[in-house]
Amino acid sequence: MKKRNIAIIVVCALILGVFLYGYSYLNDIKTVKISKEDKDLGIKPKDNYKEKDKDNKVINIALFGGDGRDEKDVSRSDSIMILSIDKANKKLKLSSIMRDTYVDVYGHGMTKINHAYAYGGPELAIRTLNENFNLNIRDYAFV
What we know:
Layout: H1 2-28, H2 49-56, E1 58-66, E2 77-86, E3 91-97, E4 102-105, E5 109-112, H3 115-133, E6 139-142
Parallel strand pairs: 1-6
Antiparallel strand pairs: 1-2, 2-3, 4-5
């Protein structure tokens, strides 16, 4: 009986520890508001993405991994991925963009795509992806 009680206490302590770790980790996550205006994000109105989205129910999300060592560092995006969620067909697609891809960054001319995040944060990085790859990304995550 004593071994069973000790085992229950240990399991409860482990569960509590995992919960507290997860809670502290989630509290460290920062959120940033970006413009949701199509023009600011480089989404071309002539392509009529809103109608296309309603029909296909595809959501594109940009995923950035930064090279900064701390929050105050201006960082480039070392990894850039695009997550496509196709609700109609219940499929996910994950595409990777090479960080040395040479593209036109709005206001900075031709340069590597990973510089866009350092030049203008998530808004410019998303705009660069949308304009150069004809996408309709509105959401992102940065790690």
